[in-house]
Amino acid sequence: MTLFRATVLDTPDDPFAGGSLRADADAGLLVRDGLVVDRGGFAAMAARYPADEVVDLRDGVLLPGFVDTHVHFPQVRAIGGLGMPLLQWLERCALPEEARLADRTYAEAVAEEFVSGLVQAGTTSALVFGSHFAPAVDVLFAEAAGAGLRITAGLVVSDRLLREELLTTPQRAYDEGLALARRWHRVGRTRYAVTPRFSLSCGDGLLDACRSLQADVDGAWFTSHVNENAQEIATVARLFDGCGYVDTYDRHGLVGRRSVLAHNVHPTDAELRCLAERGAGVAHCPTSNAALGSGLFPLRRHLACGVRVALGSDVGAGTGFSLFKEGLQAYFVQQLLGDEGVPLSAAHLLHLATSAGAEVLGLGDEVGDLGTGRRFDAVLVRPATGSTLDVALRHAADDEQALAKVFALGSTADVAAVWVDGRPLLTRGPDGAPSGTTGDRSGRVAVPG
Ligand SMILES: [Zn+2]
Separation of 2 CA from ligand 1 center, angstroms? Predict the structure, then answer.
């Protein structure tokens, strides 16, 4: 067993429901087989477990691993395509790149870059939009499983209005999805998600096939896009004879507890009520919504209706993998909404980036905070000495203020170590180079053999 010693910040109690930040300046977390089996003040824990190895992380701040509820595997090289609204951006930036994943060798290179991007950002769990090509989805699952990430993903399907090579048929979508699910669903930390791209590119027959697949794969997830952009919404309404966007999925039985819909920037009240009744989650993607000019996310209306919300990076329309940036942008948007916005504290941002995501992905009993009984999925934030974040943290008045500074100034460069199930996925020395952080009880740092 290992005793992790650290300043630990997490949000086991939902700040939107009256909870507040849990901050332990010198905590001890006892981890056995990847599970936090006991937690308390370090001195008491060290006395209780004198024989266990101590990993001293007091040179940083330990947070739960981040949960990204909406991110696109094939778009890592498309990040930074600025200056276009959604449908133009898809046509010019995203879809040409997605078409290249027909080549398995190309897909392998992108999968490596994508998984590495998640790990470096401290993302330990993610709901991933896969590729339109089944072999590329296999490649993604293999890469993510090899790295040790907690990934839910699937084959993206469309049967109209996109470039020809990205289209499929209902039967092929079902068959290829089932084959992928048989290989990867509930294997280790991976799960399968039925993934129609969006109603705009999916006819009723294909959405029916998606429903059949979800019904035939026990515990499979459903994810797609909804209500992102005004022109997109108008086109969907025209294609479905005036049907509401959420209803295009709901009438096929796709909206439920294991559903996550991305964006939802422009929902009607009826749609919010439907999402709440079904227990579906919404992935709020703040930098993407800003970069594409999609709109300001109505968080207050979601919360008022009881819709569950978490964060998504939406790479590559989003501007990177870091959930620090998504949290900060979420905060900006609510400020800009004035009276219609929700004033967000640092604890809200941490909750949205960790425990809310875990809950939306049905992982709330396993991850999302660092309490006893949770898997040890964690991120060590340790800025470079003398960096602005380092200065800010040294002068923070309290833990909530320190956390606010982490969200204001933090980036992937400040992520010094990442664990999933107690296993290190990334460790960086103070100079940014990979190294170990195993130390003895005195806090001495040694590189493990
Ligand atoms: Zn997306």
Answer: 39
CA 374/CA 11 separation, integer angstroms: 13
Determine the distance separating the centroid of ligand 1 and the alpha carbon of 318, expressed in angstroms: 9
Question: Does residue 4 register a pLDDT over 60?
Answer: yes
Residue 46's CB: how many other CB atoms inside 10 A?
Answer: 16
CA-CA distance, 393 to 410, in Å (whole number)?
Answer: 11
| Interacting residues of 395 by C-beta distance below 8 A, sequence separation 6+ | none
The ranges assigned to domains in the chain are 2-64+368-446, 66-360
Rounded average pLDDT over 276-282: 98
The alpha carbon of 279 and the centre of ligand 1 are apart by a number of angstroms equal to 20
Strands (E), 130-220: 150-154, 156-157, 191-196
Q: Cα of 33 to ligand 1 centre, how many Å?
A: 35
pTM of the model: 0.96
Question: Dihedral sign, CA of 107, 313, 389, 120?
Answer: negative
Q: Which fold has domain 66-360?
A: TIM Barrel (3.20.20)
Give the DSSP letter of residue 384: P
CA of 77 to the centre of ligand 1 (A): 15
DSSP string covering 252-295: TT--STTEEEEE--S--HHHHHHHHHHT-EEEE-HHHHHHTT--
Q: Among 350, 294, 349, 283, which residue's Cα sits nearest to residue 317?
A: 294
Q: What is the mean pLDDT of residues 292-314?
A: 98
436 DSSP β-pair partners: none
Residue 437: pLDDT band (50, 70, 90) is: very low
Task: Name the pLDDT band for 433 (thresholds 50, 70, 90).
Answer: low
Inform me whether the pLDDT recorded for 66 exceeds 70: yes
Q: Is 434 a residue whose pLDDT tops 70?
A: no
Q: How remote is the CA of residue 71 from the centroid of ligand 1, in Å?
A: 6
> Any bridge partners for residue 35, and if so which?
32, 375
Give strand pairing partners of 152. Answer: 127, 191
Assign domain 2-64+368-446 to a CATH class. mainly beta
